[in-house]
Each structure stands twice: as C-alpha cells, then as structure tokens.
Amino acid sequence: MELQQLRYFVAVVEAGGFSRAAARLHVTQPSLSQQIAKLEQELGQPLLDRLPRGVVPTEAGRRFYERARRVLAELADATRCVADCRQALEGRLIIGAIPTIAPGLLPGLIAHFIRQHPRVEIEVVEEVTERLLQRLDEGLIDLALVSTVDIHTAIHTETLGLEPLGVLVPAGHPFARRRQLRWQDLEGQKALVLSELHCLGRQVNEFCKARDVRWQVWFHAAHLGTILEMVAQGIGISLVPISFQPIADTRGCRWIPLQEPVPRREINLLLHNLRYRTRATLTFADLARQTVHHAGWTAGNPHQPTP
Q1: Which of 41, 69, 174, 235 is most buried by a 10 A CB count?
Q2: Contact yes or no for 105/145 (Cβ under 8 A)
Q3: Is the fold of 3-83 the same as that of 91-160+265-295?
Q4: Is pLDDT larger for residue 182 or for residue 72?
Q5: What is the CATH number of domain 162-264?
Q6: What's the CA gap between 36 and 30, in Å, rounded?
Q7: What is the pLDDT of residue 300?
Q8: Residue limits of the HTH lysR-type domain (predicted)?
Q9: What is the rounded CA–CA span in Å between residue 190 and residue 99?
C-alpha cells in the first residue's frame, strides 16, 4: 500500500467522483482509477460504489476513509515538525476566521506578521464556525479565530477578549452627532441585521431581546459588507463590532458606542490539542493575543473610540 493511493482515495471520496478528484490532483483519470483499483484489490473488497452520477464509499470505504485521512494528517504534522527545525521562521501558515472577524482583525494582524516574518507563506480560510472546527479537526488549518463556540474535547479554546459592539449609522442620521447612544434610542429604528446563520446575527438578536429593543428589521444580510453599504446609503442602522469602525469610516459611516450594559462578543482562538503547532502558528497566536489585549477588549475595560 502506498501513500499516493491513500491520497487518491481520500480525494475521490471528498470530491464525490473520479473526474473531479483527478482534476483536483492534476492527474489523469485512468491513472487515478487504476490506483484505486489496486488499493481495493490489496484490501480484498470494494471501497467505492460506482454510480451513474458519481461515487459513494461503501461501509468498508467509510471506515477506511476516516483512518486514511488521519494517516495523511499525521504525515503532514510530521513534515511540518521537521520543517520547523529551520532557524528562520518560514513554512506555511493556514489561518481560519469567521466572516465577521476576518475583515476587521486579520488585515492588520497579517500585515504585522508578514513584516516580521516575510518567509512565511500565509493562507486564509474564511468560513462559519462549524466548518472551521471541521477543518481544524482534519488538520487543514493551523488555527482559527471565532466568536461563540461549543466546547470540543480535541480543540483548545482560548478567549482572547470581549469585543464591544456599537451602532453603525449613516453620516446624515440624527444619531451621527451623538457621542453615545442608549438602548432605548434604538426603539423603532430601521434595522439591518446579519443572518442568524452567523453567530453575530444570533448574538445581536439575543442582545436586543435582553434589552427589550423593538426596532424594525428591514433586511437580513449574508455579509457585513452588504450591511455597511446599505447603511452608507441611508437605508437603516445596524449593530456591528468595533473592529469594523475603520472600514465604516471609509464609507462615511459613524460607529457609536452604547451606554452600559455594552454588548460584547467573545474573540476565541482555536488550536487543535493533538496536532503539531508550528512556530509560525504559535507566533501568530501570540500576536493575536497582544492585539486584542492592546485594544482593551476586556469586560472591565471596553475600548471606546475617539468621538
């Protein structure tokens, strides 16, 4: 049995077909099919059911897939461990982040990291929390930055801080000249909110329910960028994290803090307990800790922007 056969088999299962897997691996389909056939012959039973519209793993195939995936992940860990012995910080760093954290936090973090460690190749995966957890478990990303997350025994979860949320308003809105807003000020306002497929959408809904805020929800968006553009056009207001304030400033919007109780969301760092953590991973994680700490995003010291 060869490692190449394991890689081919895992790719076929994940792609759901030979042609898609061959394209992903940059090999010919006959070569790929031949290697899978040899693997099945060696194991003595079929691993895949060939269907008209693709393939699905048999019971034996499902069991073999889980173990083959772990073997490949362990091999990748071993390779990273050896590469990490180099004196200069280099190699590849794959960072995961949810869409409501990535635009506000990652650009500054990555720019700072690259200036200090230009030989590290960085890749960013932007996904919802559940998919990032899956990728982290499969060894496909090195770390993740998320907000609300369920405890997972294999995942190390570290709360870096609590990021304040505030009210985003267009430049011409009556609130735009205010230094702070009260929760009751939001009553009856036209609200633009994020879909509850995102944890931030669920958090905003819970914050408003807890304060008995009854604003008029006009629009459920899939992306904060859409909300930002609609606020800029004067269509409504929204509740967004303070990390979006610099982006909002470029569109002529105002981010206004709320009086106590200030709504805050967790910023959590996720690492896998059983995967090798490269020096690049640990260095980036430390930089994320410093960034959140310097921002003052703690329960007792919410960062307030300059009016």
Answers
A1: 69
A2: yes
A3: no
A4: 182
A5: 3.40.190.290
A6: 10
A7: 42
A8: 1-58
A9: 24
